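Progress against Task 2.4 (sequence-to-structure conversion) is shown through the following example record, which the project officer requested during the mid-term review.
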Amino acid sequence: MSAGPRVRYCSAACRQRVYRERNGLYSWTAGEQRSTLCRQCTGRIEWVAAREGHWKEYCSAACKQRAYRERRREEAEQARRFHEEQRRRREHEEQARSRPGGGSGAGAPRSATSAEARAVVFTLAKLRDDGTTTLKKAYRAAAKKWHPDVNHSPGANETFKRLEEAAALLRNLGLLI
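Structure tokens generated for the chain above:
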């Protein structure tokens, strides 16, 4: 008994397909025979659709897993690019805020960090930053006290501009909503 020449297949899916065809494992009565292309390797898939809506997209589990990994890699790369762009934008805004004359009030002193901006808000509200008063309450108290329509003193306008710059910084950082 000679086994004959050994046949090589391009993939395990091809070997499995030939085995199923030779041994009559396809149930042609269960549905219609379909022939499609694998999404990953574009190899031909011949199979039987047992019911409507039952479609096969990959020729093997290995192709399906490779496609899944590629999709995950692409999603991770897109997320990384998005977060990198957000970080660059925040850094650019911080640099623009810290430059003299880079903001709304020309020549007005700028708050470079969130801690300094928070200190400005609490100082102008004449409140202590001890954790009992929220930043929002302190900002509202300072705004009521230093708004030019309420306070007619000579330096009220400049003080209110300083308060608004600190509040803008805190809003951009999501600390004052």
